[in-house]
Amino acid sequence: MKYQQLPPPGHLKEYISAFWTLEAPADSTTPHSFQTFADGCPGLIFQTVEQGSFYQNDKLLPGFFLYGQATTHARIHATGKLRAVGIFLRPNALKAVFGLNAGILTDTCMDANTLVRPDGSSLSEQLVNTTSTTGQIEIISSWINTQAERNNSRRNDMMHYAVSEIARSKGNVALKGLQIEMQLSERSFERKFKEYIGISPKLFSRICRFQASLKQLRNNDFSKLSDVAFENEYADQSHFIRAFKEFAGFSPFQYQKQSPEVIENLATLLK
């Protein structure tokens, strides 16, 4: 699998962290199995289904789909000569860009073409008819920019701040302190956060902490696992291992024995 990551246009960095492309070899005939990790972010994927496709639970995923927050790990399969263009969206993008209640897409996805106005042409059709990756990224970027401008009034600076603080602290900020700072009741804070991000503040914090520990393993930035647990403020090593298995699908030790991630948070499963 050939993978490339590309920066977003400057005016979309508030909503997009990166574009990526994934392409199977031209002679690829063997299906590939992947494990996805919870990463605290939604995303978009375009795939040319006539050549190769992603499947989850034996179900063909749409040609152009928007997916929400993942609360745990999942398995997907790719068949044929897969060629995909994807986007890592920011945690706030479902609400801020598309005006969606982010909770409706938690652990699921939707056909992105349903978000196009009736008088608009099919995005998938435009993308299929554009052979270059650069052209496809330009089409998607233009569409996202239009969506963001249309839903600008739905931006919530308070929730954006909460997300930023949790991510900055790698999941270790005191949520009670954030709630008090924003002058919200515990129930209101959780309700608004779920609507804006798709999961609770506590779960988002736990995923951010997991991602911080995953980054250390990915970069081999540790001497022993207990150091990773301590530096990310887990109660102990066993607590860290349980959390890692919950969000990655295998233990830190098993992760290190796997093939390198094809894409961040997408690992190839060994046969």
TrEMBL record:
The keyword Transcription applies. Transmembrane segments: none annotated. SUPFAM superfamilies: Homeodomain-like. InterPro entries: AraC_XylS_family_regulators, DUF6597, Homeodomain-like_sf, HTH_AraC. GO terms for molecular function: DNA-binding transcription factor activity; sequence-specific DNA binding. Keywords: DNA-binding, Transcription, Transcription regulation. This is AraC family transcriptional regulator. The keyword Transcription regulation applies. It comes from Paraflavitalea soli. Residues 156-258 form the HTH araC/xylS-type domain.
